[in-house]
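Narrative of activities, Objective 1.

The group set out to show that a structural description can be obtained from nothing but a protein's sequence at a throughput compatible with the screening campaign. Below is one input-output pair from the validation batch, recorded exactly as produced.
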Amino acid sequence: MKLDDLQPNAAIRGVLPDSLVTVVSVQWFGSEALELTYKTATGKVANELLSQAAEANTMENFEPIFNKQLENLFIERIDDNEEIFMRLMNDDRFREVAAKHLMRAAYEQITAKTPSQN
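Output recorded for this entry:
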């Protein structure tokens, strides 16, 4: 399979050792780089861009990268829960608290499996 063939719901090998994953989304950055969000067989959703960013940065440097990805996720899922989406977009304090909590949880989960970068 070529990178150009990656589509949501495609089952692929090679992302994780000896494991099949399901593509959730693919976002291209030019023609040379892409962000792959996928779901493991156990249902865990992971993102290669976020994993690499968390492993290479302090939590403070990871935060803007995470916030952009979180915003993209909220926009993709607007139809699933419009009430929460509208509150996140219109209530700055709610968005800040939610984003900080989710960012900290994601960063700690990602970096827990690698040596500390702090």
